[in-house]
Amino acid sequence: MIKEEIKVYEDPNALSKGFTEFVLKLLDVYPHINLALSGGTTPKVIFDYWAENCKESIDWNRISFFWGDERCVPPENVMNNFGMTKDHLFDKVPSIPNNNIYRIHGENEPEEEALWYGTVLKSKLMQKQDMPSFEIVMLGLGDDGHTVSIFPNQIELWDSKDICVIGEHPETGMQRVTISGKVVNNSQYVVFLATGKNKAEKVRDIIKNRKEHLNKYPAAKVNPKRGYLYWFLDAEAASLL
């Protein structure tokens, strides 16, 4: 049975504050947090919130930053998740140690990078059942039901035995290095972050009718085996619940 909690906030800024309080509470429990970041509009709002409000209130030495997925483009490309995080967070909070940042190199050959990043995660993270385990994984929810970079047409990648796999956008064909579902579900706190009316239908489908969509949407397969699933939603994303 999924250990699940749903938190609804008035708007993305209030959600950012709520998620920050969540992270701070976990920092009271864990001496160090390994955090898998995601791309997208909601994390961008959170990173802006951190840069503006949390330069001193968060002990940045106690957080290591990783990525759940990365588009296979160089950091200077506007679609690169690390580049977005750098612009909105790292460049604005100089107290974040560079040696706490472990990016996926989107400019490298995808298969080689997936193997390399898998070794990084294996060496830096706690291992549970022979797979890496993050303290926190931030997840986005695509309008098509994808999460990390595992799309519905490649849903079999979710159960890959590999730590990292190569996802491919079904329309653009752009490749992405992504952690597999086994890593997501092996983590302690898995957090969906969703804002806006365009997310409401999929939020409803997955929370209310998860079993019906298990073989359709990768996001429906999120089920932390020994951890907890949280939903941080704004009022619009939660409007159909």
UniProtKB/TrEMBL annotation:
This is 6-phosphogluconolactonase. It catalyses: 6-phospho-D-glucono-1,5-lactone + H2O = 6-phospho-D-gluconate + H(+). Hydrolysis of 6-phosphogluconolactone to 6-phosphogluconate. InterPro entries: 6-phosphogluconolactonase_DevB, 6PGL, Glc/Gal-6P_isomerase, NagB/RpiA_transferase-like. Gene3D superfamilies: 3.40.50.1360. It is an enzyme of class 3 (hydrolase). Keywords: Hydrolase. Residues 19-231 form the Glucosamine/galactosamine-6-phosphate isomerase domain. GO terms for biological process: carbohydrate metabolic process; pentose-phosphate shunt. Belongs to the glucosamine/galactosamine-6-phosphate isomerase family. 6-phosphogluconolactonase subfamily. Pathway: Carbohydrate degradation; pentose phosphate pathway; D-ribulose 5-phosphate from D-glucose 6-phosphate (oxidative stage): step 2/3. Its EC number is 3.1.1.31. PANTHER family: 6-PHOSPHOGLUCONOLACTONASE. It comes from the Bacteria. NCBIfam families: pgl. One of its GO terms (molecular function) is 6-phosphogluconolactonase activity.
